[in-house]
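Continuing the series of single-chain predictions for the mutant panel. This is the parent chain; the variants come on the following pages.
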Amino acid sequence: MTREINDNKGLPYMVAGFLDDHSAKIGQQIHGIPVLGPIADLSEYVFKVKAQEVLIAIPSASRDQMQRIVDLCRGCEIPFKTLPGLGELISDKVSIKTIRDVSYKDLLGRPPVRLELEQIGDVLAGKTVLVTGAGGSIGSELCRQIVRFHPSTLVLMDASEQNLYQIEMELLHEYGFKNYVAVLGKVQDKALLESLFPHYRPAVVFHAAAYKHVPMVERNPWEGVYNNIFASKRLMEVSV
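Parent structure:
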């Protein structure tokens, strides 16, 4: 890779240095370019050499290794790219053409799970589906995916008026989905649940109404227990 860059001055790259965790390599030169230091010192060397981009050239990197380097790059607010993994490089020569953006697959550490769309459709199509926490980050994405399978009714439940309104408008105007019911309320409200289930009779329930910011919940443990445990238990009892 470095040889190709050095031999082709027309390429939009100039290698300023290498970082490597093998201490024996630090201080050496590869094709006249120094191995500056360990990867942990990335931010220091990005500043020293005035780097404009980081190339992660470790095709054998594990998920944890890749995540660590990506986090360091993000901490420096510098663009970064990578080489394909070993499996992708078996039949291809490493070259500038193989450089690409880091994808979620690089951070999984395993092959991506392929959804059984037909089976999911069998569960959701034509059914009444309830999503709690429907306006949150997880609940709203669930709603976006669920409408692809054409449920007869999608019951959106959330304690936040603003979040509930936003997902309601998004489903209506961006997805053209009109078969929804917006329920403003908390899962902790036993009376609400006991009136909601007999009325709409959901066949499938996705429970996404939970506090997920760990430091905040640790500072407010009782609210975490009340919302994430007791409310979940109450929802399960009503569901069955």
